[in-house]
Design the sequence.
């Protein structure tokens, strides 16, 4: 068996899982199980939010190590499920390394995503239904939906431009604030507060917060604390962004 | 009518917004329905526990526990990672409104209202965290008990 190929396989699997937003313990466990299933004596992956270190002791006493850096990434539940499934299958069947490598690459190539219009509809509905959920009237919900749409467009655009997470959040929050204030000014009987709350729901760091708690519980303190800080800073960015929009409109027009 | 507006509509909105979140985080197929049902179930638990607990922090805790148990069960049934279902179903519970009101108090310079609203928001977030934490560690203990026996 070519241990270098195995090393690459294991670290690519870990990289795929991490880059689609899996928890730390899942990545570590998957790499370890894979290496043990292929007959390695010791396998010690170490994973923190933007780095994977895979090290194992091959039969015969040779040690191999690889370090991979993880770029900033979003969450793709479908990819996590498929990589997880692949890892289970590989551990159970242990096919040849070439075959395993082929299946791993296939997942990356046949990535299934929703089309852009569907995503925009989703952003619209997140905002609209959250607004209704928090007690908005149907008109508020409709306006909020358009804020959500704007947030969706801005997020996609800025992600493509590699904008920093906090800057991106702040700008989207400010955009929501301005749009909501404008719409509530034009449409009588609508509530700017509820429109803004709905529009912000797509930005709120609920996902990284829950993920952080799961990491802390699994004993990965480094990852957990990093992600909690991430969630808190995102929350502060939202507040700063909307606060800026509110304060500026108040200053200029006194509304 | 009151059952319709106090229970049915909020649960329906929670269901629909979870579905939209599921699409944003690229959950596919049946998973979308599972996530949305989780969101709806969580909010139903929140509403139903209101007369008993009369505190939104305690209700939020109940909702988080219900969602986490539901997600663990669904993940076992479908043999998929639990994360996706749990994360997406919890999203409608996130106290977005409280975050906003906290910020608004800060802008208006109402320091007392700002602080109490901030603490309340942190309490809600903490309740979600404790709910998630409790279920995930219970499941962990349960599965390691079973693997040792």
Sequence:
């Amino acid at each position: 068996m070519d241990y270098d190929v195995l090393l690459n396989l294991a670290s690519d699997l870990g990289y795929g899982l991490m880059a689609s937003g899996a928890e730390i313990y899942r990545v570590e466990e998957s790499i370890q199980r894979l290496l043990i299933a292929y007959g390695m004596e010791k396998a010690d992956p170490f994973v923190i939010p933007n780095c994977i270190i895979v090290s194992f002791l091959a039969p015969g006493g040779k040690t191999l190590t690889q370090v991979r850096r993880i770029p900033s990434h979003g969450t793709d539940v479908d990819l996590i499920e498929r990589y997880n499934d692949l890892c289970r299958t590989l551990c159970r069947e242990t096919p040849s390394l070439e075959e395993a490598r082929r299946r791993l690459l296939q997942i990356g190539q046949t990535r299934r995503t929703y089309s852009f219009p569907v995503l925009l509809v989703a952003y619209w509905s997140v905002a609209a239904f959250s607004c209704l959920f928090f007690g908005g009237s149907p008109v508020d919900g409709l306006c909020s939906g358009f804020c959500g749409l704007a947030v969706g467009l801005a997020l996609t655009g800025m992600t493509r431009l590699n904008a920093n997470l906090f800057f991106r959040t702040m700008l989207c929050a400010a955009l929501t604030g301005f749009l909501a204030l404008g719409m509530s000014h034009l449409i009588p009987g609508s509530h700017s507060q509820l429109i803004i709350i709905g529009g912000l729901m797509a930005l709120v760091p609920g996902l990284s917060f829950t993920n952080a708690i799961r990491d802390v519980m699994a004993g990965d303190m480094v990852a957990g604390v990093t992600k909690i800080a991430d969630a808190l800073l995102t929350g502060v960015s939202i507040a700063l962004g909307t606060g800026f929009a509110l304060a500026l409109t108040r200053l200029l027009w006194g509304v | 009518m009151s059952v319709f507006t106090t229970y049915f509509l909020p649960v329906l909105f929670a269901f629909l917004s979870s579905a939209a979140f599921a699409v944003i985080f690229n959950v596919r197929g049946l998973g979308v329905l599972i996530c949305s049902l989780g969101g709806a179930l969580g909010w139903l638990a929140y509403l139903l526990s209101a007369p008993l607990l009369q505190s939104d922090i305690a209700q939020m805790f109940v909702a988080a526990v219900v969602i986490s148990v539901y997600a663990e069960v669904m993940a076992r049934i479908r043999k998929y990672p639990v994360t996706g279902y749990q994360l997406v179903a919890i999203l409608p519970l996130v106290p977005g409104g409280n975050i906003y009101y906290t910020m608004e108090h800060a802008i208006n310079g109402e320091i007392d209202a700002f602080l109490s609203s901030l603490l309340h928001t942190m309490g809600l977030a903490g309740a979600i965290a404790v709910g998630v934490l409790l279920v995930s560690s219970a499941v962990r203990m349960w599965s390691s008990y079973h693997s040792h026996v």
User: Anything to note?
Assistant: Chain A has ten helices and four strands.
